[in-house]
Amino acid sequence: MTVTVYMLRCADGSYYVGLTKKPVEARVGEHNAGVTDGYTKSRRPVELVFTETFERLLDAIERERQIKGWTRRKKQALIRYDYAALPDLASRKKQ
């Protein structure tokens, strides 16, 4: 079983981070169809901007929580795959 952590860019420019055991394209389709009430329902359409796949559910849950706690700038660096910039964008780092 694989689990995918994904990030969506919503129509209002905000980001949504989630995880799914389904094919990620199917999950994005559910977000765009407004299948469930939640953050993205009033912010459609959404666009898939980042994914990471994990073999273990607990690893995916940990990564989802980590990314959800990040600043907008740090999420944008992740979307660009700019891993070198991530430590400098840490919210706890002293400026």
Quick tags:
95 residues, alpha+beta, GIY-YIG endonuclease, 3 helices, globular
Note down, in words, how this protein is organized.
The chain has 3 helices and 3 strands. By secondary structure, it is of the alpha+beta class. It has one domain: 3-Layer(aba) Sandwich (GIY-YIG endonuclease), CATH 3.40.1440.10. It has a 3-stranded antiparallel β-sheet, with helices on both faces. A hairpin with a 4-residue loop joins β1 (3-10) and β2 (15-20). The longest helix has 12 residues, at 57-68. The radius of gyration is 14 Å and the shape is globular. Pfam families: GIY-YIG.
| Cα gyration radius (Å) | 14 Å
SS elements, strand count? 3
Strand order of the largest sheet: 2-1-3
Helix run count: 3
Mean pLDDT: 94
Assigned CATH class: Alpha Beta
Helix content: 25-40%
Structural class: alpha+beta
Return the CATH architecture: 3-Layer(aba) Sandwich
Count of discrete domains: 1
Distance between the termini: 41 Å
Based on Cα principal axes, name the global outline: globular
Any chance you could write out the topology, listing elements then pairs?
Elements: E1 3-10, E2 15-20, H1 24-33, E3 46-54, H2 57-68, H3 72-79
Antiparallel strand pairs: 1-2, 1-3
InterPro entries: GIY-YIG_endonuc (IPR000305), GIY-YIG_endonuc_sf (IPR035901), UPF0213_domain (IPR050190)
Protein name: GIY-YIG nuclease family protein
Domain GIY-YIG: 1-77
In short:
Residues 1-77 form the GIY-YIG domain. The chain is α+β, with helices and mostly antiparallel strands and 95 residues long. Helix content is 32%, strand content 24%.
